[in-house]
Amino acid sequence: MDVDDIRGTAFGSAPVPLSVLDLVTVGSGYTATRALRTSVEIARLAERRGFTRHWVAEHHSMPGVASSSPAVILAHLAAHTERIRLGSGGVMLPNHAPLVIAEQFGTLEALAPGRIDLGLGRAPGTDGATAAALRRTDHLNEGADEFPQQLAELTRFLDDDFPDGHPYAKIHAVPGPVQGPNGRPPIWLLGSSGFSARLAGVLGLPFAFAHHFSAANTVPALDLYRESFRPSEVLDQPYALIGVSALAADDEKEARRQTLTNALSMVRLRTGRPGLVPTPEEAAAYSFSPLEREFVDSWLANVVSGTAEEVRDGLDALQKRTGADELMLTANAHGPEVRLRSYELIADVYGAPTA
């Protein structure tokens, strides 16, 4: 595995590489089919404009998010792109048998050699009841013992190197190394707290932090990752990206109007009422309670939005404050055109290539 499989390349005047985190959002009045088609359009735009990677995230039982099966979506994106890196941001490891993930991502690596990232999370990506339904158990294996063991097992399946005498020594993830020399996806650890930050550092793996929904923990987690980092065969020094909610529009008023749709979606999700992403008109007419308004104000404080120039300035300041090696942008809004326009504007303002 080459370190270039991990480190991105900045385009234009961007301070660090820029990438895309795609939640495959479904707006009111739209369908999952349209949301998945939009993902292809975003991936092609990102590839054309020089973004480093396009990741999709595993979520379950959320009507407004159509990314329950990252491996399926990534195979589709691979068939419609040629160069951009594609990956999971992330697959929730405790939801799956490690062998299944190794087989899925070995298949993706065979479909798109040298372009696949395997980002792994520790949370279920849903509520407890749905997690129990996924795992066929009420025991949610996310603790300090289970996750590192699951990660070690997955890594051995990917490398096909269980020691002699191990119960899995004669089990092979296919496609995989048992078929001959080939590459394999680099593993990233994802997190919104210090647990995965420390583990990624100790193992010498790249780390992705969910700044877009855990902004208060960003700097402490990145500091912990860097302090814990030990050089490995994968990396000789830390490499951390952060997910950032960023939405650019042609004017500041429109950007505010669009970001409120995502804020209302989050209010509904946090209060047990998940649904499709509301329209800007619905969000503008919604009567927020005092507690909801407090949540919305806190949520929007960590969204970088406005004109392209305002978003550029906000991203530059965030990168400088956190020292992130890469910014992964998620543009969450009701309509597909708004999301596509946002990535185009950000690429333009940084002077990204046009082909």
TrEMBL record:
Superkingdom: Bacteria
Species of origin: Streptomyces noboritoensis
Record key words, sorted: Oxidoreductase
First and last residue of the signal peptide: none
InterPro entries: Bact_Lucif_Oxidored, CmoO-like, Luciferase-like_dom, Luciferase-like_sf
Name of this chain's protein: LLM class flavin-dependent oxidoreductase
Every Luciferase-like domain range: 19-321
Example of a GO MF term: oxidoreductase activity
E.C. no: 1.-.-.-
Pfam families cross-referenced by the UniProt entry: Bac_luciferase
Coiled-coil regions listed: none
Family statement drawn from the similarity comment of this UniProt entry: To bacterial alkanal monooxygenase alpha and beta chains.
